[in-house]
Design goal:
This is NUDIX hydrolase. By secondary structure, this protein is an alpha+beta fold. The protein is built from 3 helices and 11 strands, in the order ββββαββββαβββα. The chain has a single domain, classed as Nucleoside Triphosphate Pyrophosphohydrolase (Alpha-Beta Complex).
Length: 194
């Protein structure tokens, strides 16, 4: 991908667990003490370390955040890569976690909760479209392009998804990944035999 080196690379594990309501996605609420996005809802995961493959990063971060071991994780496959207009690439992976006792690292996570896969299959997210516009640097060489300061820059849209489940609001990138993963689960019948 052209310009990929300008992007920060992240990986997440979209975790499936068995519940009384059937298969469910597991979400984390980020610790209030974190510098970035405290209190937000997310999937286990984080930024890739140098020379780390996305699947390795997703598994490593999940083990650290949920206090589980590698043997509990059954990878089903990759999700659709999320490319953000904010120079972030997120590599989601779909996995079952077996024998999970709802443990988590209190340094990074303040709570975990589940949402039945069925909820996402039956409810589409609310979508809000934000407009993205160029903000050019002060020293931009307008004199070097046709039209100069009147150049007709392309504008873009960025969808921000929201799901409301009980008292929780799952939004933004996490909601977009959840929507995509559940579509893949349905399309490829990934819950069959589970």
């Amino acid at each position: 991908m052209i310009g990929e080196g300008d992007f920060s690379q992240y990986a997440v594990l979209t975790v499936l667990v068995e519940t009384a309501q059937g298969p469910a996605l597991l979400f984390e609420k980020r610790s209030a003490g974190l510098k970035r996005q405290p209190g937000e809802i997310c999937f286990p995961g984080g930024q890739l370390e140098a020379d780390e493959k996305p699947i390795e990063g997703a598994v490593r971060e999940t083990m650290e955040e949920l206090l589980i071991n590698r043997e509990q994780i059954e990878i089903l496959g990759p999700g659709d890569v999320f490319l953000s207009p904010f120079n972030i690439i997120i590599h989601p992976f779909i996995a079952w976690i077996r024998d999970y006792n709802y443990s988590y690292s209190r340094e990074e996570v303040s709570a975990v909760f589940t949402v039945p896969v069925r909820f996402f299959q039956e409810n589409k997210p609310q979508k809000y479209f934000n407009h993205l516009v160029y903000e050019l640097s002060k020293d931009f060489p307008y004199e070097s392009i046709p039209g100069g300061k009147n150049y007709p820059w392309t504008k873009g849209n960025y969808a921000v998804n929201f799901y409301k489940y009980e008292k929780e609001v799952i939004w933004g990138i996490t909601a977009s990944i959840a929507e995509s993963v559940v579509e893949l689960i349905s399309r490829y019948n990934l819950l069959k035999g589970q």
